[in-house]
Structure formats: structure tokens, C-alpha cells
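Weekly sync, protein design subgroup
Attendees: M.S., D.O., the rotation student, P.L. (late)

Item 1: inverse folding check
M.S. brought a backbone from last month's batch and wanted to see whether the design step gives back something sensible before we order anything. D.O. pointed out we never logged the input encoding, so this time it goes straight into the notes. C-alpha cells as presented (255 positions):
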């Protein structure tokens, strides 16, 4: 690669970094590396795009400790790429490593985004739809690869609404075993029926069995999860049809 080409490659990378940074509230560190040259830009091609960052704050209640994202060959809009704006002409495959601290996750659980997702998580209990509106949710990491949840909220079945508090621990899926529920304890309310637990586990099984989850123009799946003492590390595969501000936020929020 000639010096002239390297200078132009750096220009595209720096401009792309600037545009990404504009979408963040704050960032301790953010780097974008677009590997290409003049000829490839004119042809609408880039060898790959890499994004890495630490301490990314997307919104006041959404923070990511660390993210490393890399794409394969990218077909881009040549004119936009010259100015550092990566507009995809074809879908691109990406792999991301995301580190979320326990504090980050618990902060995200207070966000409207997560609350709305939980509220739209209906369970089928013996043919009847049950919904749960959370009032308080937090995770804890008890060690030995386990994840724990404390949740309190309103459980609604038809016209009947009651308070429910629950504490549960589970082991996430690995290459050696499926999701394993270790314990469930009712902390508030009248208790939890076996049917409700089974419906919850069936819903988790259905989601975990999907080849890909989808959000707007992104199809993604978690290929590995490591649970450490104070953080969770996710490895994610994604097929991205287009990169937009909202999609970048979503990748950072994967939880």
C-alpha cells in the first residue's frame, strides 16, 4: 500500500470515528479502522471495518464497558465512504465481543427500552396469556458461571393482577449444556405456580432455539457467553443490512 493510499485510508477512518462518536453521549475510548484504498473506495469496496471502544455511554442509562466489532468484506456507497459514512450496498457479516459489567447491566435494566421488552414478553400458561410489568429488576453474579435475577412486579392474568417477587439463578447455555435453571424462590406475593415456571422456561427455550434473533435490519445470535465475577462477556454474530445510528446503539446494548 502506498503512503498516499494509507493517508486516504486514515482520513476515511478518522471521519468514520467522528461520525460514530457523535452518536455517543461519552466514550473513554473509540477507534474505527476502515481498511481500503482509493481504488476500492471508487469501486465501492472495503476489506473490513473494525470498531473498538471502552466506556461507551449511549444514553444516560445505557453503558458498555468494552466493545470490539469487525466485519468481513464490505460493499459500500463510494461517495459516502469518501466522507467516512459507511452506507452498505450489500449485507455484511460482523462479529462482536461485548463486555458488560454488573453495574452496566443493572443500569440498563432501569431503561425504558428494557422495561418495554419485558412488558412485551407474554407467557402462555395453559392457554391463557400472562404478562409481567416489572417494578424493580437487578442481576447478581454469585460465581461459578451462574447468573442471578431479583425481580418484583405486577403479574397479570386476564382481569386478575397481583404482586410477585422472585429470585432465580441459572447457568447460561454453553457448548456442553443448555440453559439450566438452578433455583426459583418467591420473595413477595402468594407464590409461583409450576405451570408459570414451565411456561417461562418454554419461552426461554423457544428464544434460545432460534437460529437468529432480529431487530430492524440486523439478524444476530449470541454464540458464546462467559460469566465472570463482575461482568458478562458476549460473543455475537450478526448479519447487517444497513448501519444506522439506532442499529449502532442496539449493538452496544446487547444484553
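Designed sequence read out in the meeting:
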Amino acid at each position: 500500500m502506498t503512503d498516499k493510499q494509507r493517508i486516504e485510508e486514515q482520513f476515511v477512518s478518522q471521519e468514520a470515528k467522528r461520525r460514530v462518536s457523535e452518536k455517543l453521549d461519552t466514550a473513554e475510548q473509540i477507534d474505527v479502522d476502515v481498511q481500503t484504498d482509493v481504488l476500492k473506495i471508487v469501486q465501492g469496496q472495503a476489506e473490513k471495518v473494525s470498531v473498538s471502544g471502552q466506556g461507551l455511554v449511549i444514553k444516560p442509562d445505557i453503558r458498555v464497558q468494552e466493545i470490539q466489532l469487525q466485519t468481513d468484506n464490505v460493499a459500500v456507497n463510494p461517495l459516502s465512504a469518501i466522507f467516512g459514512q459507511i452506507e452498505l450496498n450489500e449485507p455484511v457479516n460482523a462479529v462482536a465481543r461485548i463486555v458488560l459489567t454488573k453495574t452496566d447491566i443493572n443500569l440498563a435494566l432501569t431503561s425504558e427500552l428494557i422495561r418495554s421488552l419485558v412488558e412485551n414478553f407474554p407467557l402462555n400458561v395453559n392457554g391463557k396469556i400472562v404478562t409481567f410489568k416489572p417494578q424493580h429488576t437487578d442481576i447478581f453474579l454469585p460465581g461459578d458461571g451462574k447468573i442471578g435475577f431479583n425481580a418484583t412486579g405486577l403479574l397479570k392474568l386476564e382481569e386478575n393482577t397481583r404482586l410477585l417477587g422472585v429470585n432465580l439463578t441459572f447457568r447460561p447455555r454453553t457448548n456442553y449444556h443448555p440453559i439450566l435453571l438452578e433455583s426459583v424462590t418467591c420473595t413477595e406475593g402468594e407464590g409461583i405456580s409450576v405451570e408459570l415456571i414451565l411456561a417461562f422456561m418454554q419461552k426461554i427455550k423457544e428464544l434460545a432455539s432460534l437460529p437468529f434473533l432480529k431487530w430492524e435490519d440486523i439478524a444476530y445470535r449470541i454464540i458464546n457467553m462467559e460469566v465472570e465475577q463482575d461482568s458478562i462477556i458476549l460473543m455475537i454474530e450478526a448479519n447487517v443490512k444497513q448501519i444506522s445510528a439506532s442499529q449502532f446503539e442496539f449493538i452496544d446494548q446487547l444484553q
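Discussion: Residues 3-107+212-253 form one domain. The first strand starts at residue 26 and ends at 35.
Action: P.L. to compare against the previous round before Friday.
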